User: Which sequence fits this backbone?
């Protein structure tokens, strides 16, 4: 990781494009922004939007928060049209809200624990009032290699849909890294850091779905940054690995790689293995709830 492991790292800093998301600062804290995500409406306050990861905000508002025609604000009942998976956003909102609601009840208990990973090492007194959330996203593009000659377009489309169903079933978060997680590799370092911070080796993607009319599968996984890591329980190395994740707060990082796979028992390809090229893009970012 560039932010955590040097220039040879498999995760590099994302060079964000598009307009700055700072335009959210022009919206009043109490103002509600209504979005229409593929027919599903969401009404969120500015404060709740600002808790979301930066790369998610850039996906929701690729042309800026105030597109042409909205520079003067919003008309009551008006909604911004957003091409984004509503189920993915709902999964994220549910997780963030659950964590936010748990902070007051945990503040007094975690405040006195020694060795707890602080969200801000320089201000331990306030860290018990905050919670870190690890946000991991995978964008998987796949390309099907025809299993026979002279395939018609309609047949090709059906095979792609069947391949998508097979790939959706491969929902282990780290399954795409298992081929190269030997000790000492950058992949192993990435897995070690994420499992020290909050994930488990056998975790599944919290949300995984195909994009409409595209050979693309988008996955999202969230984990609360562990606040129970103590040096006498997991070792100082685990504490250090978990703290490295804080380097990705408001600094999304990306890792991209290709792999070739063979899928068994794909509908329409009976008796043969279907060869598929996959391009995976992982985006990693930290969010902090309770930070003002």
Assistant:
């Amino acid at each position: 990781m560039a932010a955590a492991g040097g220039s040879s790292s498999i995760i590099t800093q994302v060079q964000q494009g598009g307009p700055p998301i700072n335009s959210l600062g022009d919206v009043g804290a109490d103002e509600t922004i209504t979005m229409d995500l593929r027919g599903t409406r969401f009404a969120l306050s500015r404060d709740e939007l600002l808790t979301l990861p930066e790369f998610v905000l850039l996906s929701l508002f690729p042309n800026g928060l105030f597109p042409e025609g909205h520079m003067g604000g919003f008309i009551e009942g008006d909604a911004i049209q957003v091409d984004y998976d509503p189920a993915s956003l709902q999964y994220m909102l549910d997780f963030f809200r659950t964590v936010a609601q748990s902070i007051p009840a945990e503040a007094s208990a975690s405040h006195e624990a020694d060795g707890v990973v602080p969200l801000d090492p320089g201000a331990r007194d306030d860290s018990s009032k905050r919670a870190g959330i690890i946000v991991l996203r995978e964008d998987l593009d796949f390309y099907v290699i025809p299993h026979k000659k002279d395939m018609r377009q309609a047949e090709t489309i059906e095979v792609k849909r069947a391949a998508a169903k097979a790939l959706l079933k491969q929902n282990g978060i780290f399954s795409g890294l298992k081929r190269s997680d030997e000790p000492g590799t950058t992949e192993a370092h990435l897995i070690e850091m994420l499992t020290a911070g909050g994930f488990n080796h056998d975790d599944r993607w919290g949300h995984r779905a195909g994009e409409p009319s595209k050979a693309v599968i988008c996955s999202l996984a969230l984990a609360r940054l562990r606040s129970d890591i103590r040096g006498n329980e997991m070792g100082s190395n685990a504490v250090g690995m978990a703290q490295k994740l804080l380097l990705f707060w408001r600094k999304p990082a990306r890792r991209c790689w290709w792999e070739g796979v063979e899928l068994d028992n794909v509908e329409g390809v009976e008796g043969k293995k279907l060869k598929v090229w996959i391009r995976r893009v992982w985006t990693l970012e930290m969010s902090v709830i309770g930070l003002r």
Q: What stands out?
A: Residues 1-10, 15-23, 106-117, 121-125 have pLDDT under 50 and may be disordered. The radius of gyration is 21 Å. The chain is about 30% helix and 25% strand.
